[in-house]
Amino acid sequence: RNLLDRDTFSKSDPICVLYTQAIGNKEWREFGRTEVIDNTLNPDFVRKFIMDYFFEERENLRFDFYDVDSKSPNLSKHDFLGQMFCTLGEIVGSQGSRLEKPIVGIPGKKCGTVIVTAEELGCCRDSVLMQFCANKLDKKDFFGKSDPFLVFHRSNEDGSFTICHKTEVVKNTLNPVWQAFKISVRALCNGDYDRTIKVEVYDWDRDGSHDFIGEFTTSYRELSRGQSQFNVYEVINPKKKGKKKKYVNSGTVTLLSFLIETEVSFLDYIKGGTQINFTVAIDFTASNGNPSQPTSLHYMNPYQLNAYGMALRAVGEIIQDYDSDKMFPALGFGARLPPDGRVSHEFALNGNPQNPYCHGIDGVMEAYYRSLKSVQLYGPTNFAPVINHVARYAASVKDGSQYFVLLIITDGVISDMAQTKESIVNASKLPMSIIIVGVGPAEFDAMEELDGDVVRISSRGRFAERDIVQFVPFRDYIDRSGNHVLSMARLAKDVLAEIPEQFLSYMRVRGIKPSPAPPPYTPPIHVLQTQI
Description:
The protein is of the alpha+beta class. The chain is about 20% helix and about 30% strand. It has 3 domains: about 10-115, Immunoglobulin-like (Sandwich); about 125-260, Immunoglobulin-like, CATH 2.60.40.150; about 275-510, Rossmann fold, CATH 3.40.50.
């Protein structure tokens, strides 16, 4: 909207060029170009860019705008109209996945604004719930009736068939009713609604030599009509049909119900406005070492971030794209506080217990450095208070509009294991996840136990409802060559990768559906003036 006008006799002819940035060397690479739209300062570009999205990675984007003056593909031959920088997460995390930002890059000039929208490609996320019954199937057993079951196959491009579902066996009946079953549309027909689906009917035998009763074919499109005269199928046995003139069929199979369920994704919730609230808790126990000494994990090196700062930035810079107000509570634990030296296990880094919020990751870093100068490192290492602190907030919004992520950065050995386990088991019922980054050389066996990937965490005989803790040791990511950018990107990737699934597991268990996204942006209609 409102691009600069660079043409003397008419309006600019804009094009947009998208660049992505490599993580390591920060080099910008051209990703693609839109079409050129002639003679307008308010272009609505049609060409879309399709890119991979990972919640746990930071994807920097740059949009450059040019006024195209000739057929040359060389951009330096055209007039530069400005540019906009953002991350893919910023677009996706904006209200309705629609981001509006000013175009910058030409000093002293207003360059207009750009509106970017993102939508997830629904690569067929539907599943169907179907139920079948049969009537008058052929009797195959010498004593008693048949024990029928169904086998479903989808057809492949080359005409072969792949098995995709087997029903259970219903014993001793020629009129079975099978249980409803759920299958993804991908597995059933590879997302192609007209592809042949072959269904075989068998009589189960204990020795595995099941007798073939007959078969029929259908397609997703036919099945999707639901229960109707179209979905009663004759079961045909080709051998019998060839031999017997009077053969009609070997029974019929009827579709009783057909329900489509769309699997919702993490982005459906984000697009519907669910906010991710990020809280940081930092370990201020004495085992970290005196902050004024270079050996300390809290050493305030003027030239580079310490391990706490690096871990905080790596994780925070990605999560902040999903939090609209960018205000993050930052807490400390295990220190003696001024003026009276009382020990606290949940103090506000900014010194304001009523309002522990810091503005942006930079604000959190600033508060962290400030409190290092004012508090005395002490102990013990108690996690439960900060976990319960976030849990209190999470317990007050269980409607799916907010989800809480707590990042705990610690140097190690935990003092209140029993209480922490109890807190985690309680928190597993709430909309929250916990990330623990262990810094320094300590043994982190207890943290692995909290992680719950191998054995689900329990407290006093109660098991956590879902796995909500992800632990990583910082030392596994330190790059000997000193390239911290790549190693921190890896750290963020590993600790954040499980969050979307943990988030979805909470929403599923609670039966919370995503809110509808706000209505898409529609450009104002330009009234054409006609001369008579």
